[in-house]
Write a structure and sequence with these properties.
132 residues, mainly alpha
């Protein structure tokens, strides 16, 4: 909840105070944060499924699909947001999807390494009182 609130505040602060036009990397920051936030939320929501299957990489195409949906939404209302050319919009969309995917891959990598490490720890455990 904190993460989504932070991303939302960053986004609307960027719009209201025109930070997107002043700070060249602001858009990259907000899209990377949103990609990682969506990935983390999806992994936490489907935690039982992920733990039993030991697979986290399904999250990458899932977040790409969600972010692509948002980019379509942004394109439909682009005259409301920006007066961009189609070429500029396509480049922006490609960059937005790339950095969102980067954020997603970071979260998936961290989750994957976490569960591998957790498996290594539990693999060494024996039954209570070593009653094998």
């Amino acid at each position: 909840m904190f993460w989504s609130g932070t991303v939302t505040i960053f986004h609307f602060t960027g719009l209201i105070f025109e930070i997107y036009t002043i700070v060249s990397w602001w858009d990259l920051l907000t899209h990377t944060m949103s990609g990682s936030g969506i990935a983390a939320l999806a992994l936490l929501t489907h935690r039982e499924r992920v733990v039993t299957r030991k697979a986290v990489w399904w999250i990458v195409p899932t977040v790409i699909a969600i972010r692509a949906g948002f980019e379509v939404y942004e394109f439909v209302f682009k005259s409301f947001w920006h007066e961009w050319t189609l070429r500029h919009y396509l480049i922006d969309t490609a960059v937005d999807l790339a950095v969102s995917t980067l954020g997603t891959v970071v979260v998936a990598s961290v989750a994957n390494h976490y569960w591998i490490a957790a498996d290594d720890v539990t693999a060494g455990w024996s039954t209570p009182n070593n009653a094998d």
